Amino acid sequence: MRDAARQPNFSYAGLAARVGRQGLGSWAVHMEALALQQAGEEVVLLTIGEEQDRATPKAVVEAAVHSLRGGRHHYAAFVGEAGLREAIVAAHVARSGQQAGVDNCVATAGAQNGLFAASLSLLQAGDEVVVVEPYYTTYAATFTAGGAEMVAVATQAEDGFMVDPEAVSGALSARTKAVVLNSPNNPSGAVYDAGRVRAVVDLCRAHNLWLLSDEVYADLAYAGPVAAPARFMGVEEKLVTVSSVSKSHRMTGWRIGWVVAPRELCRHIASLALCMNYGLPPFVQDAATAALRGEGDAELAELPAIFARRAAVVEAALSKVDAVRAIPPGAGIFMMLQLPAAADAARAAMDLLAAKKIAVLPCANFGRGFKRYLRLSLCYDEQTLARAAAEIADFFACYGFHPAASPETSP
Question: Would you tell me which CATH number, out of the four given (3.40.640.10, 3.10.180.10, 3.20.20.150, 3.40.1710.10), belongs to the domain 58-295?
Answer without folding.
Answer: 3.40.640.10
